[in-house]
Design a protein that fits this description.
Elements (H helix, E strand, L loop, with lengths): L8 E6 L25 H8 L5 E6 L19 E4 L2 E4 L25 E5 L22 H7 L4 E7 L1 H14 L3 E10 L6 H11 L4 E2 L2 H4 L2
Parallel strand pairs: 1-2, 1-6, 2-5, 6-7, 7-8
Antiparallel strand pairs: 3-4
Helix pairs in contact: 3-4
Length: 216
């Protein structure tokens, strides 16, 4: 088990934004993760247990390299980008739009940092730590080290992309990383969940349930 929460723990809430959740009254849903909004009550409850909470926010410019429309292609195919294979997505989380805003049900007033990623037009950024070239840092690792935060619990959207790469990069950079599985949901493209589970096992990243933290 993870043991009691410590002052050096942080909850890392990945991309709980309107476009990754089912649309409500016509807002959001551009790249809706199935049942993406179902994680929000769990995340809100978890956040109350943590002194330190960090939010990430996908924040794309127009004609971003990850958009299928940029390449006149259909979504969910792939291209070879200069940094490797890139999945092509529907346009989502455009800067300054309601789709990029945090879901209104997300209620974490004590969050200490909002880290925006994916704002460089020519490179995507799944991970909260590194762009998709796996070299360009976001600055999160330095922030955590300066705050002496050493153990990270990851939740949010999507389990098989941004949560996955954030957890693995965090572990590689020397942080203890733990994924709270029922507080995340997957896009679930062919094999992506199975690949994610194998990657976590290979990296010795535990997958736990929220009850292990929320239980009295």
């Amino acid at each position: 088990m993870t043991g009691n929460l410590q002052p050096t723990d942080a909850l890392l809430v990945i991309d709980v934004q309107n476009d990754f959740c089912p649309a409500v009254n016509g807002v959001g849903g551009a790249l809706a993760v199935p049942e993406g909004d179902k994680v929000i009550p769990i995340i809100n409850a978890l956040a109350k247990k943590f002194d330190h909470v960090i939010l990430t926010q996908d924040w794309h410019p127009t004609q971003h390299i990850s958009f299928a429309t940029t390449h006149n292609r259909q979504p969910y195919g792939t291209i070879e980008a200069p940094y490797g294979q890139q999945t092509l997505w529907p346009e989502h989380c455009l800067q300054h739009t309601e789709g990029a805003a945090f879901h209104p049900a997300l209620d974490i007033p004590h969050a200490e940092l909002i880290l925006r990623k994916g704002f460089r037009r020519h490179i995507d950024s799944y991970s909260a730590f590194l762009e998709n070239d796996h070299r360009t840092p976001t600055g999160l690792a330095g922030y955590l080290r300066e705050r002496s935060l050493t153990r990270l619990f990851l939740v949010g959207l999507a389990y098989d992309f941004c949560v996955r790469y954030s957890a693995i990069d965090g572990k590689t950079l020397g942080f203890e990383t733990i994924v709270i599985e029922d507080a995340a949901r997957a896009v679930n493209l062919p094999n992506t969940v199975a690949e994610t589970n194998r990657a976590f096992a290979s990296a010795n990243i535990p997958r736990i349930q929220s009850s292990e933290i929320l239980a009295p």
